[in-house]
Amino acid sequence: MISNFLNWLDHRTGYKHLAHEMLIERIPGGARWRYVWGSTLTFTFFIQMVTGIALAMAYSANGKHAWESVYYIQNEMTLGWLVRGIHHFAAQAMVVLLVFHLVQVVIDGAYRAPREINFWLGLVLMQIVLGLGLTGYLLPWDQKGYYATKVATGIVGSTPVVGESMQKLMQGGAEYGHHTLTRFFALHVTVLPGLMLAFLVLHIYVFRRHKITVRDAERAPDASFWPDQILKDAIACMAVLAAVMGLAIWKGAELSAPANPAEAYNAARPEWYYLFLFRFLKFGWVSQMGEATGLGEAFGAVVIPGALMTVLIAMPIIAYYRGGHRFNVYYLWFVVLGAIGLTGLALYEDRYSDRGMEFRFDEHQAHVDGERAIELASRNGIPADGALALVNADPHIQGPKLFRTYCAECHQPASMAPFFKRTKEDGTSEAILPKAPELADLMTRHVSFGSRDWTRQILVNFAGHLAHTKNMPEVKQEQVTALLDEEGSGMAYWSKEHREMLNDAANANDVTALVEFLYAQSGRQDALPPDDKQYLRGREIFEMGQLTKGSFESACAECHSLHVRGEAEVAFDGGLPDLTNYGGSDWNRRFLSDPAAVYGENNAMPAFGDQLSPQELDLLARWLAGDYE
Q1: pLDDT bracket for residue 20 (50, 70, 90)
Q2: 22-36, 151-165, 288-302, 493-507: which range is least confident on average?
């Protein structure tokens, strides 16, 4: 019955003849592993088509909602994370397989007459694959893809004569933004895949017309494409699939913070297979030649790559001449190894050298912000204004950025010390000294200000803890001198006079209790409740100054005002500094706005009330207090 049906189907369609034409091909010298690269490329493109269709069904090509749709794919859609991961890594696998295939074709001389047209068709396919990679990188509309593609469109814009028009065509207008996304989406899912299919059919047709190129037809008995070569092809395809699946499960496709055009991003880099060109443009001599020729960036971005590509296109013609094939092989190895070397140099500089500090920092922050944005979206949902509105209102994301802009140079995190340098008149650089104690580590986003250890250091070693204030400008030295004067009447004197008592083992529990009481005033979630025995003991010490062994010359309550958290009345009214909600968001907000109003004139901190908007003050104050979900 099945046989009758197949005969009927063959009579109507002729599929048996078509299958015979496709599968029955003689392979002189036998099947070989070196012939698998074309098949693995076709298979990988098929994977891209299948996964791409699945992704397109859930994607929104909209500047406000593109990131949200990728978030949905990644976190809500059934196996969406796996589909996206396969699509992401299969795209990169295609580039690697392309290089292998090109090298194999040139070494085997499979570009020589009468196969010139097929070689050129292959080069067209290579450009389409690279175009698919470029257009797809933007679609998540995250910080990495947004700025990386902006760099790429800028390079296109440097092309002489037609550059500006080409850039506008790619961007969808004069500005880089929403229309760029819709333009790239259309190219990525319709134009380029359509061209890819058309040229792939032509490529395979011309290949089958001229048969396989064999360097040594006598190495083994002849074989057939089916089943000998197709078995090797299938094994190679399964190996590629396994590698792609493994990477998708192990690493997954990252989704960094939503794209923010208003925010500088120093980690803007193209995908790794474009890094060689990015690094080439950074050579000094390339810039100098661009200036000398009047071509600017186009010299390194267009002219040199264009010349290298021209030689590649001319390989079938060069091969007509004596020694041409050998030249082609050496030339290709020169280009491939050069690209690998430049890529390695770019990766080394970004990942390990001092030149890559800004890159590593911003890349890490984009990764952390991306995880935070996903956490917020999962917990609270995404507002109608989009994910950018969600992250712009989050202290955990915006606080560190504001701190870096307004606070980090004075309160330098130890991990960021190399960032703070200035160029002197003689061209050399010198370190910018910190002018205040470290408040937070921006790399880990750990805030030390207001912590238990911070409070303990204020009590035990006030002058040492604030020693960096000695580096303040001369206009602040009067306040600094008063602040750190251990012979005066301020906190530096109090700390020095009571240091031995505070460090006495007999008073260890009392000091801890006092620290816990002060720490609790911030209202942080891990603080002790007001009915805890240790908290109550700390309150007693704050008011009376009596320790297990010895007592303070003056209790804390005699000098400081404090409206104890949770109590209706003001408990202590000793003066400034006012410790009400010390280390909490309200205290931080008041202190940042006008330090003198909270701390008195004996203070070297500048006021930020006129420099930051109320929203910015709130975000920074809440981040320093850990006041966010």
Answers
A1: low
A2: 22-36
User: H/E element holding 16?
Assistant: helix 15-23
Structure tokens at 12: 């109507």
Greatest extent of the chain over all pairs of C-alpha atoms, in Å: 109
The pLDDT tens digits of the residues spanning 477-499 come to 777 787 788 887 788 899 999 99
How far apart CA 191 and CA 134 sit, in angstroms, is 14
Rounded CA separation 59/347 (Å): 31
Cα atoms found within 13 Å of the Cα of residue 512, Cβ hemisphere only: 9
DSSP SS3 for 17: helix
Nearest Cα neighbor of 66 from 388, 366, 378, 392 is 388
**How far is Cα 253 from Cα 232, in angstroms, rounded to an integer?**
30
In contact, 578 and 559? CB cutoff 8 Å: no
- Higher pLDDT: 207 or 520? It is 520
Long-range own/partner contacts, residues 448-457 (CB < 8 A, 24 or more apart): 449/583, 449/624, 450/519, 450/522, 450/524, 450/582, 450/583, 450/584, 450/588, 450/624, 450/625, 451/519, 451/583, 452/515, 452/516, 452/519, 454/583, 455/515, 455/518, 455/519, 455/583, 456/511, 456/515
Q: How far apart are CA 418 and CA 355, in angstroms?
A: 10
Instruction: Give the contacts of 275 (CB within 8 A, at least 6 positions apart).
Output: 269, 342, 343, 346, 347
Q: What is the pTM of this model?
A: 0.87
Q: Judge whether 272 and 282 are in contact, CB under 8 Å.
A: no
From the list 46, 43, 30, the residue with the least C-alpha distance to 227 is 30
pLDDT at 127: 95
